[in-house]
């Protein structure tokens, strides 16, 4: 078997541009004016003198089957060990000695390993530089691991103490740091703020890893007894360290590969993030300020990477809150993804949850911090797909750095692996090879297969920050074309020219030394900062620096232990300034809380900040809530939680893009007593009745005391609701839309319901006022479309249960006074089966004085139906909107630009999910009876020119089409196959075909000439699907603002769930432009599976209610005084 994966960055860049810039509406603001010459120039060993190669030797007696970490690589540290102003290099070796190189200037280095006494003979991995004895010279701490059977004395960590004369003495035992715990990396951190540096070690025991690979899912060990538990050593202040792991709460196991430290919640205490490989959860140890930590990963993250590798912390949007990048192993090309992913079922994911594991997915994750909520918990949004950095192959190091000095963090990622050990074809063949034969023949066969197996070899990645939460792959443009197996990486200004050069530890090849040419190619400026701390923390590790220049403020804390097993420049920070040639202000907050401020500084130089020049200041706590508009409260007395049933759609329809049984609850507001106070109906899931809450005179709510008829309808799913006067008696009646996916399409549980108000808040169910309507619906909207003085209805059909994507029937119901008549066929033939409709608005969009209808739906454009004398005609194409087919979720009408006509806000899928990911372009849905079993199946695919390739993995296709593996002989063949290859050209040609090419939540601006302009909202509005929208003046400036909410918690199990939404307020300027306000600043934090929004005015104030699927109601009170 031969397998080699090589990535073509040039094609990926093109695909990203086509999807994000032209097709999907998910645009970027990349300027494209970078230099013609590559930003980086690689220097060969003959030029630099750096001849190190991390050579790995394997054979039949010792290979990756025996030692799973054989190819986990080494790290690199950059730091000035002799205080001559030039950063030196230390590269770790696994089966060869690590090497120390002295920087002689001009990218020339001298190997002083032997003379310095820094050779290694153990399995060296992580490298950390620190002045551990406070003498002003950097020491070197080397993390050591090795095979599981290696004796403790062979895997003790090393501490090389700098003698000040370019020699070192190993003293780990003397300091109490000769830990034998299979350490991957170490970070020095003053966690208890007593002034000296302690050390955190991440450990990774290969024996447990191998056992878990064989045995599968098991409960985590979180009592500190696992051999893969990390360690925390406290500095005793006398030149020794003590293991305080258990006392400090470091108890959770993990196959730790990535380590990053910073003050995540900005309370003044350093926190610790650990990226864990495969099943064990990643860790986010929040410092409690009393010498202990609490893992809050499950509270702060909605999901993480599955095979977490390296990690780093930066600030991608310059908002002052630390963001986290974690890399994984997802290939960038779909055909290669199909060879290594797609085996996870919904049942397996549920069992993971039952065992206590967090949600994990195979992709790089970028956790965007939104600040804190009302409980001072950090609110993250995972935006790997939106940002364009989710898939970079088998990745190792991840580094934030401003490589072009434009003032914004870019991203560098290393990748590669010499053996494609996760390839499904290889794993199946390996399993089959061990079923027969003698022990010796099986062993020989296993080794032969491994020997023939090639690997993943790819150029490393660089992503340029587009300043809008997205990144552009500039790997080729910046000079990274050479495939390699690359691991640890560190950046440093090796030649003191004001830009970040790069050093990479490669396996079985020379180390990569890359000179950054930003100083000559870009017109940008920089400021270098060297920190000189107090006597116990010589180089100011943990200090936080903020730089303001050219109207932008950047903030970063000095933690050099980053990426993967590496230390970036250990005594220096650098800030790119873009075109600003002066720094307006520079602030530093030292770890002990002391403060320093400098103003009006010249750029393009290094400055030294000394702790002795700082002043006392109160220790910073978590920044106080800056909520400008709302505060989450619980003062309305509404005790409500929606509880879903446990029906699993994928058991019957494995290829569904998402669950269709979890579309509720519907909600409605209306004055049911005609007393001037609006009341609230909240729908229930199947098995749970809806509830009516009556507003009291004091503005609170109480559940209705009356026995209501919908309690008898608890078996139905309430997906939409509306209060309106159905029979003209002046009382608010209640219409409830029924939906779901667990019923037969002919089930009476799909019948909508109309409850008439007797006038005193008691409702009576009508049995004869509605026609038979066996449709799974989504929404109901009322208006007098025929001008006869009563309220008619549009009811949106969402889907046909069990028959996705058969178009559901929607209804126009004409109010006859005594009941409603279905007039859809004669009044609006195009609405009989328009598609999978999600929402609608009645509106006079053409200004002729009659109400028209605009509907949204899945696999369709926002569709405009013009009312011509009571008959509705689809005029979408004439408005120029028929080409923008999306997964539209919601719509609201409003005059957004103050010109007197109606515009629209339309909620879409967003740009942060695989369906709309960069490089995808359009997605397609083809349905046919592909396997001749009498039922039509729907396959989501990508492609063009008639060639469609399924997005689904082979395991999912096999669950839908039994016998698929007999037709397709391998995962490799499956990755290369089109639907025509699988089912034949004829069936594909005959298949029903739907397409979606526009995924951005947008505004539709009425141009006043009968045309509309589609304009996507900022990327902050694209983090998740938008299931509901409010338009209101939030800040009191008389301009309409937008409030959105939504997530998608139950997509197909092959798809990362879309949970990055935290609710969003966008402030309007009155001219149709909208600017997002972060949840931290707005106070509106709605991070759950939001389905409906409602605005309520009571005597107590103005409120926004967020109705969540399978969750509690959230209530937000306006803090803006209303006129």
UniProtKB/TrEMBL annotation:
Tell me where in this chain the ASPIC/UnbV domain is found: 540-607
One Pfam family assigned to this protein is: UnbV_ASPIC
Chain coiled-coil ranges: none
Supply the alphabetized keyword list. Signal
Instruction: Kindly provide the name given to this protein in its UniProt entry.
Output: Repeat domain-containing protein
Q: Which organism is it from?
A: Fodinibius roseus
């Amino acid at each position: 078997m031969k397998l080699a994966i090589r990535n073509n960055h040039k094609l990926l860049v093109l695909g990203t541009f086509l999807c994000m810039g032209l097709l999907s509406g998910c645009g970027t603001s990349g300027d494209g004016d970078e230099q013609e010459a590559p930003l980086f120039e690689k220097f060969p060993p003959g030029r630099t003198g750096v001849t190190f190669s991390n050579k790995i030797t394997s054979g039949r007696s010792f290979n990756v089957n025996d030692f799973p970490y054989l190819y986990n690589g080494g790290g690199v540290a950059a730091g000035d060990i002799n205080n001559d102003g030039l950063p030196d290099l230390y590269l770790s070796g696994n089966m060869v000695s690590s090497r120390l190189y002295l920087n002689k200037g001009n990218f020339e280095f001298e190997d002083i390993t032997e003379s310095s006494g820094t050779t290694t003979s153990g399995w060296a991995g992580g490298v950390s530089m620190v002045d551990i004895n406070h003498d002003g010279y950097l020491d070197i701490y080397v993390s050591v691991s090795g095979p599981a059977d290696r004796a403790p004395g062979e895997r003790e960590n090393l501490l090389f103490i700098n003698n000040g004369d370019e020699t070192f003495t190993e003293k780990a035992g003397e300091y109490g740091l000769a830990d034998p715990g299979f350490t991957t990396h170490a970070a020095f951190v003053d966690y208890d703020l007593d002034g000296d540096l302690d050390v955190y070690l991440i450990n990774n025991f290969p024996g447990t890893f191998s056992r878990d690979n064989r045995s599968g899912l098991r409960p985590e060990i979180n009592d500190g007894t696992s051999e893969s538990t990390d360690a925390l050593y406290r500095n005793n202040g006398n030149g020794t360290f003590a293991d305080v792991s258990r006392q400090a709460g470091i108890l959770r196991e993990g196959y730790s590969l990535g380590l990053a430290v910073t003050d995540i919640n900005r309370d003044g205490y350093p926190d610790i993030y650990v990226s864990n490989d495969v099943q064990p959860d990643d860790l986010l140890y929040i410092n409690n300020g009393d010498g202990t930590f609490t893992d809050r990963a499950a509270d702060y993250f909605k999901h993480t990477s599955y095979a977490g590798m390296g990690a780093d912390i930066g600030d991608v949007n310059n908002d002052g809150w630390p963001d986290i990048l974690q890399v994984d192993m997802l290939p960038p090309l779909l055909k290669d993804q199909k060879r290594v992913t797609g085996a996870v079922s919904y049942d397996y994911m549920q069992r993971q949850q039952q065992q206590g594991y967090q949600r994990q997915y195979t992709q790089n994750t970028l956790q965007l911090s939104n600040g804190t909520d009302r409980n001072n918990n950090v609110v993250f949004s995972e935006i790997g797909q939106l940002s364009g950095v989710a898939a970079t192959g088998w990745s190792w190091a991840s580094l934030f750095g401003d490589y072009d000095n434009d003032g914004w963090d870019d991203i560098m990622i290393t990748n590669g692996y010499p053996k494609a050990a996760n390839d499904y074809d290889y794993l199946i063949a390996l399993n089959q090879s061990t079923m027969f034969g003698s022990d010796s023949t099986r062993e020989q066969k296993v080794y032969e297969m491994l020997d023939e197996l090639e690997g993943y070899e790819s150029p490393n990645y660089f992503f340029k920050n587009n300043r809008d939460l997205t990144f552009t792959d500039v790997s080729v443009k910046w000079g990274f074309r050479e495939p390699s197996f690359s691991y640890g990486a560190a950046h440093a200004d090796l030649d003191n020219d004001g830009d970040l050069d790069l050093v990479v530890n490669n396996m079985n090849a020379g180390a990569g030394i890359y000179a950054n040419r930003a100083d000559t190619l870009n017109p940008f400026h920089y400021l270098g900062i060297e920190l000189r701390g107090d006597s116990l923390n010589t180089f100011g590790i943990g200090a936080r620096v903020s730089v303001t220049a050219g109207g932008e403020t950047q903030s970063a804390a000095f933690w050099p232990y980053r990426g993967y097993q590496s230390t970036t420049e250990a005594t220096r920070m650098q800030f790119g300034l873009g075109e600003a040639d002066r720094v307006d202000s520079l602030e530093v907050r030292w770890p002990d809380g002391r403060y320093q401020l400098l103003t009006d500084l010249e750029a393009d130089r290094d400055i030294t900040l000394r702790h002795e020049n700082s002043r006392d200041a109160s220790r910073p706590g978590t920044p106080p809530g800056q909520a400008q508009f709302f505060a989450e409260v619980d003062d309305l007395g509404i005790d409500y939680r929606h509880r879903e049933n446990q029906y699993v759609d994928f058991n019957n329809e494995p290829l569904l893009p998402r669950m269709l049984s979890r579309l509720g609850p519907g909600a409605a507001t209306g004055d049911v007593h005609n007393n001037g106070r609006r009341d609230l109906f909240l729908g229930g899931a199947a098995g749970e009745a809806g509830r009516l809450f009556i507003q009291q005179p004091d503005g609170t709510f109480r559940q209705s005391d009356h026995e209501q008829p919908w309690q008898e309808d608890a078996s139905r799913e309430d997906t939409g609701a509306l209060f309106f006067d159905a029979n003209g008696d002046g009382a608010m009646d209640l219409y409830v839309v029924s939906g779901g996916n667990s019923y037969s399409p002919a089930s009476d549980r799909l019948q909508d319901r109309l409850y008439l108000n007797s006038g005193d808040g008691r409702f009576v169910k009508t049995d004869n006022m509605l026609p038979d309507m066996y449709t799974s619906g989504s929404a109901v909207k009322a208006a007098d479309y025929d001008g006869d003085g009563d309220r008619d209805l549009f009811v949106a059909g969402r889907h046909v249960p069990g028959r996705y994507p058969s178009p559901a029937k929607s209804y126009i119901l004409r109010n006859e006074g005594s009941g409603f008549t279905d007039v859809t066929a004669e009044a609006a033939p195009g609405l009989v089966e328009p598609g999978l409709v999600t929402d609608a608005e009645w509106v006079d969009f053409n200004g002729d004085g009659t109400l028209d209808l605009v509907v949204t739906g899945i696999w369709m454009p926002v569709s405009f139906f013009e009312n011509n004398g009571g008959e509705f005609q689809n005029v979408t194409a004439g408005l120029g909107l028929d080409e923008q087919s999306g997964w539209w979720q919601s719509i609201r009408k409003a005059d957004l630009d103050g010109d007197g006509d109606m515009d629209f806000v339309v909620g879409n899928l967003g740009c942060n999910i695989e369906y709309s990911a960069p490089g995808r372009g359009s997605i397609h849905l083809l349905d046919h009876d592909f396997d001749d079993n009498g039922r039509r199946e729907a396959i989501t695919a990508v492609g063009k020119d008639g060639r469609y390739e399924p997005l689904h993995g082979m395991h999912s296709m096999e669950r839908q089409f039994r016998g698929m593996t007999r037709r397709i002989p391998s995962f490799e063949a499956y990755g290369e196959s089109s639907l025509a290859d699988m089912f034949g050209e004829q069936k594909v040609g005959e298949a029903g075909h739907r397409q979606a090419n526009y995924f951005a939540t947008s505004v539709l601006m009425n141009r006043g000439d009968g045309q509309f302009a589609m304009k996507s909202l900022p990327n902050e509005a694209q983090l998740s699907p938008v299931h509901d929208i409010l338009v209101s003046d939030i800040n009191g400036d008389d301009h309409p603002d937008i409030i959105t909410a939504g997530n998608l918690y139950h997509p197909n199990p092959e798809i990362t769930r879309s949970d990055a939404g935290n609710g969003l307020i966008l402030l309007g300027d009155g001219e149709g432009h909208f600017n997002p306000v972060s949840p931290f600043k707005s106070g509106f934090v709605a991070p759950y599976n939001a389905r409906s929004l409602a605005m309520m005015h009571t005597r107590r104030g103005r409120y926004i209610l967020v109705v969540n699927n399978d969750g509690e109601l959230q209530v937000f009170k306006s803090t803006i005084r209303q006129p």
